[in-house]
Amino acid sequence: MKIGVLGAGSMGAGIAQVAATSKHQVVLFDANQEAIDKAFTSLNKIFNRLVEKEKYTRQEADEILARIQPISKLQGFSDCDLVIEAIIENLEIKKSVFKQLDELCKSDCILATNTSSLSVSAIAGACSKPHRVIGIHFFNPAPLMPLVEIIPAIQTAEQTVSASKDLIDSWGKRTVIAKDTPGFIVNRVARPFYGEALRIYEEGIADFATIDWALKELGGFRMGPFTLMDFIGNDVNYAVTESVFEAFYYDPRYKPSFTQKRHAEAGWLGRKTKRGYYDYADGAELPEPNTDKALGEEIVWRVLVMLINEAADALFLNIANRDDIDTAMTKGVNYPKGLLKWADEIGIAKCVNKLDELHDTYREDRYRCSLQLRRMVMKGQTFYS
Ligand SMILES: NC(=O)c1ccc[n+]([C@@H]2O[C@H](COP(=O)([O-])OP(=O)(O)OC[C@H]3O[C@@H](n4cnc5c(N)ncnc54)[C@H](O)[C@@H]3O)[C@@H](O)[C@H]2O)c1
Questions:
Q1: CA within 20 to 30 Å of 17's CA: 42, 112, 118, 144, which one?
Q2: Which domains does the chain possess?
Q3: Which atom of ligand 1 lies at the shortest distance from residue 113's CA?
């Protein structure tokens, strides 16, 4: 199969690498020649390092690199079997590009978008053959992250879904199927990890370092939320939160935080600007957390129960099935356990009681318990048995 990759930025270059490593011929296009040059420089560096580490022989690395060819016109995609688009996150631009791809690609070529937040159905709606349009959402960096969300638009044919899933599975990725709704699985279910941590900080319950310490050391998450937001960039993470909030018709559960907005506005974006929630200037020291265990456990419990509620609600609304929701969070964002499995271990009734306690205390819709959890308690059910 010949694969086209449209957009040679960080995601496009990574996807091209994954496809070429899986022995496909790949053609790579970008509107900006500099982006193509940068992608090839970076791919060469990556493969030099992989050869040094003896992951590939020089010959194997050269063969993979030779399979990726730059093209200077969209027409170069005309004999591709799959084109994956990874250009700027803008619906109007994506629709216009898909309209062109729809006209010039073979009639059985699958057209995929790597969008993180836009409606796949809206993109498919720009095409005359929308049944072959689908979301194939890689995580960053694409060659390293195992998870890929497959998102059928409401117009997508079953054949397009199974062919896309089989192909991406054959690349050694772990695919999950998600409904075409804002944030798909990961970017929806993970929102409270950031949002509730920011809320706990804003209420003055604990500082950034203490919240990070609690979730990492007591909760078992790979990174605390503030450290993670500093990695992702407060501009990027805030933009995703804001777009998910709008897309959910301003559901208070997804409300963005002024603390993060101010950090983004101030240019305190995180590691990339050497200042975010923490100071990363040379010689700067990270603040010490308050390691009070009771406080730490309360922080973990509040964030975790909000994550469990979000995962349960995603199941309730048929965004994905149980296994895919748990796999998405462990393989896409390295959570220590699937959230639904975690809920079983804690006890569903205990989760419902905590959510009701938060709801009664705050009287905010943000803390409403998913009907999924409440019904399970009434019926004495668990997620896994
Ligand atoms: N960065 C991430 O963490 C991440 C993760 C998953 C999905 N995504 C999604 O992947 C897509 C690309 O993200 P990225 O981080 O690689 O962006 P990027 O800015 O690194 O790269 C985008 C590239 O697209 C090119 N481009 C823009 N408009 C174009 C057009 N009309 N035709 C051809 N090329 C065009 C740009 O020149 C640029 O090289 C977005 O939809 C984004 O939401 C990003």
A1: 118
A2: 2-180 (3.40.50.720), 185-385 (1.10.1040.50)
A3: 41
